[in-house]
Design brief:
The structure is a homodimer.
Chain A lengths: L8 E6 L11 E17 L6 H12 L1 E11 L5 H18 L8 E8 L6 H12 L7 H7 L8 E9 L2 E10 L8 E3 L4 E6 L5 H11 L18 E6 L11 H20 L7 E9 L2 H12 L2 H8 L5 H10 L10 E4 L2 E5 L2 E2 L3 H9 L4 E6 L5 E8 L3 H9 L3
Parallel strand pairs in A: 3-4, 8-9, 10-14
Antiparallel strand pairs in A: 1-2, 2-3, 2-7, 2-9, 5-6, 6-8, 10-15, 11-12, 11-14, 12-13
Helix pairs in contact in A: 1-2, 2-3, 5-6, 7-9
Chain lengths: 394, 394
C-alpha cells in the first residue's frame, strides 16, 4: 500500500495511450472527502503547464485529488498547453463529482514540447474514474513512471493521541533530476495522509522535509520544468497533527525514502553516492559545496570506476562558490581519509577496497571552517546513462 | 612551427619520467633575450602550486621562459608543493643562465594530490636545457599533453609597419575543461611572439581574447585547479604593437583556434557543439544561458545520439540564472527551427537530418529579449568519456 494507505483515499492507474510502450500511463487519486493541500514546485523559469495551473490551486490550500499523465510533459507548450492542463483537470473533477474543478490537481511527465492528446486523456480519465479503489495504488504508482526502472512508494504510520495516522507516498523520477523546489519540482511526488491538518501545517512539513529529501538529490544536474511535490490531508481518522513533530518526521521520512529511491534508480546508475560536507562556514556553503561535488561528472565517473579519486573532489570544491582554505581541507572516500591540507595520506588502495565492498559510496569533505554540514545524494555516471540518453527523447 | 615560430624563441621536450607511459613529459621554452609577459589563471579556490608561484611573477610583467611538467599537477600539495614549484623554476632558470629565477615560469598538469619527484624533474630539466632549439617546438607541444589525443598548436603572422610579427602558441587539455580565467586555467596555453609589447599591451590582448576563446569552452563543466594562459613577447623583430588591433586579433585567433582544438579533442568526443545564444537581455545573460546548455549532460548525450532534442535545451535554459520568457523563446538545432514560444514546428526529422550530415552541431537559442549574444563551445558526451574517466586517474 502507498498512496491509498491512509484512510479515505482511492486510486487507479490505466492505459490511456500516451506512452508508446503501451504501459499504464494515467493515474487518478481522490479522497472520499475534501482535503487540504500544500505543495512545492520547480524553480525553472520555463515551468510546465501543469505547474502553472497547480500553483494557484495549491495556494488555495484545498484539493480533493489529482490526475497524472506520463509520456508527455506538457511543458513549453504555450497558452494551448495551459488550456489542455485545465481541461484535463476539469474533466477529471467532473468525472469524480467534485463540487469545484479547482479541487483537482494535474501533473504530467515525459517529452517536453509536445501537445497533450486530449481525446486520449479524456477517454483514459473516464476509465480511471470508474476503476478507483483502495487497492489501485500500485497501478497508479506504475502509471506515473517514465524512465523509472521500478515504482517508488513509501508508508509511515504514527500514533497521535491513540489514533493511528498514516502518511503514504509515491514518486517517479530517474533522469532530469536536480530539483531545487520552493514551497508554493520531472520529479513528481504525491503524498496522502488521513490526518487532520491545515494547509499551513502541511506547508511547514514540506518546508522542513525538502532540504533533507528532494532538494538534496541529483541524478544529472538537470532541473526539470515539471518537478512537483504534493501533500494532501483528508482528516479521515480525525486526529489533528498541528504541532506534531512526529507528523513532520513521518513526512520527512517518506520524502527522504522516496528521494533515495529516485537516486538509486538514476538512469544507468549502479550505486548511490553520499556526498557529506562538514565543517562549512555556513549552511549555504555546505549545500553549495556538496552540490558541486555531486554534480561533477568526473567524480561520478570515478566512483563508477571504483576509483577513490580525491583530486577530482578537490577540483569540484575549487569551483564551488564557497569559503575554502586548502590548508584546513580534509577529504575522505569510503570512510578512508585521503588528504588533509595538501598532504596525501597514501591510503588510496585502502579507499579503493572500501569502495569495492559495495553499498553506498560515501565521499567526505570536511572544510574545517565551521560547523555547518549537508548531505547530498547522487548516483554514479555510467556509459549506460549516456547510451540511454542518446537514444531516449525526453 | 608553433611556440618557436616567433624569432628568438627556443624549445625542448624530453622524457623526465613523470608519465607512467614513458612519453615526452617535460617542456622547456626560453627566449634568447628578456621578454614581457601577461597571463590568466584559474579562479579555483584551490589553485595548484604553480598558479600560486606564477601569479606574482606574471604580475611583475617580465619573464624569459617557462618549464612544464606533465603527469603530476602539483595541486592540493600544500606548502611543500609550492616549494617544489619554486625549486623547479629556480633549477630551470639557473640551467638557462637567467639573471633572475623570477623570470622562469612553471606549470604542471596531471594527477591532483601527488608530490612532484624533484630528482626526476631536475634531471629532465638539465637534459631539456642542453637540447633547446628552434625546432624543439613539436617535442615541447607533445610533452605537455596528458589525456590529449593530439598536440594543439597555432601560428599567425601580421604585418606591423613592414615588419612581420609572429604569434605562435601551444595548448594542452581534453578533460577537466571549463575554464573561467581572469587575467592576472588543467588547461595550459603558452603563446610567444617576437613583437615589442609591454605587459599592459599583452594583458589587454589576453583580456580581449579570453571571452572569445578559452572562457567560452567546456568539455565537462569541471574547472581545473591549474588552468593557465601565458603570452610572452621578446621584441626580437623590433616592431611595437601598442595600439595594434591586428595584434589583438592575431592573439585572439591563436587562442580561439587552440580553444577549438581543445574541445574537438574533448575526452571521448565525436564532434564539437556550438551553442549560440542570441537575443539575451544582457551580455551576462547570454553567457550564462549558453553555459547552462553547454554543460547539460542531457543535451550533450542527445547530440551524441543525433537527436535534436529541443526539450532538453528548454530544460537547461529554465535553470539558467537569466531573464527568460517562454513566449519569446526560439530554439533551433542544425539551423532548423524546432520551437517558438511554446509552439513546436514539427521539423524534428529535418533537424535530425541536418545533424546526421556531420560537422559541428549548432544549437541556437534566441531569447527574444534583447541584443546580447554569446557562442559557447562544447563537445558531445559519449559512453567512451565515462569509460575513460572511470579508468583514468587525474
Amino acid at each position: 500500500m502507498s498512496i491509498t494507505a491512509a484512510k479515505g483515499w482511492k486510486a487507479a492507474g490505466v492505459r490511456a495511450g500516451t506512452k508508446p510502450s503501451g504501459d499504464l500511463d494515467l493515474a487518478l487519486v481522490v479522497s472520499d472527502s475534501p482535503a487540504t493541500v500544500a505543495g512545492a514546485f520547480t524553480t525553472s523559469s520555463v515551468p510546465s503547464a501543469h505547474v502553472i495551473v497547480d500553483r494557484p490551486r495549491v495556494s488555495n490550500g484545498h484539493a480533493q485529488g489529482f490526475c497524472v499523465t506520463a509520456g508527455i510533459a506538457n511543458a513549453f507548450t504555450g497558452p494551448e498547453g495551459v488550456k489542455a492542463a485545465e481541461h484535463m483537470a476539469a474533466t477529471a473533477a467532473q468525472l469524480c463529482g467534485f463540487s469545484s474543478e479547482q479541487d483537482m490537481l494535474v501533473a504530467a511527465t515525459g517529452t517536453i514540447g509536445e501537445p497533450l492528446p486530449m481525446d486520449v486523456i479524456s477517454k483514459g480519465l473516464a476509465e480511471a474514474a470508474s476503476s478507483l479503489s483502495e487497492t489501485g495504488d500500485e497501478d497508479a504508482a506504475n502509471a506515473i513512471r517514465t524512465t523509472d526502472a521500478y515504482l517508488k512508494t513509501c508508508v509511515r504510520t504514527i500514533d497521535v493521541g491513540g489514533v493511528t495516522v498514516t502518511v503514504g507516498g509515491m514518486a517517479k523520477g530517474a533522469g532530469m533530476i536536480a530539483p531545487r523546489m520552493v514551497p508554493q519540482a520531472t520529479l513528481l511526488v504525491f503524498i496522502t495522509t488521513d490526518a487532520v491538518a491545515s494547509a499551513d501545517v502541511l506547508r511547514d512539513a514540506i518546508t522542513a522535509a525538502l532540504p533533507k529529501s528532494f532538494n538534496a538529490i541529483t541524478v544529472d544536474g538537470c532541473m526539470s520544468t515539471s518537478d512537483s511535490v504534493f501533500l494532501l490531508a483528508n482528516g479521515a481518522v480525525g486526529a489533528d497533527v498541528a504541532g506534531s513533530t512526529a507528523f513532520v518526521d513521518a513526512v520527512t521520512e517518506v520524502m527522504a525514502d522516496l528521494a533515495y529511491k529516485v537516486v538509486a534508480d538514476g538512469e544507468g546508475a549502479t550505486r548511490v553516492i553520499r556526498v557529506q560536507v562538514t565543517g562549512a562556514a555556513s549552511d549555504d556553503d555546505a549545500y553549495a559545496a556538496a552540490r558541486e561535488i555531486a554534480t561533477s561528472i568526473l567524480v561520478r565517473s570515478a566512483i563508477y570506476g571504483g576509483d577513490p579519486n580525491y583530486g577530482r573532489i578537490v577540483q569540484a570544491l575549487g569551483q564551488a562558490p564557497v569559503k575554502l582554505d586548502p590548508a584546513t581541507l580534509r577529504i575522505s572516500v569510503g570512510g578512508v581519509e585521503l588528504g588533509y591540507g595538501g598532504n596525501g595520506t597514501g591510503r588510496g588502495a585502502e579507499a579503493a577496497k572500501a569502495l569495492a565492498a559495495g553499498g553506498d559510496a560515501v565521499i567526505g569533505a570536511d572544510l574545517g571552517l565551521g560547523s555547518s554540514s549537508f548531505e547530498y545524494l547522487t548516483c554514479d555516471l555510467t556509459p549506460e546513462y549516456v547510451k540511454f540518453n542518446a537514444e531516449y527523447t525526453t
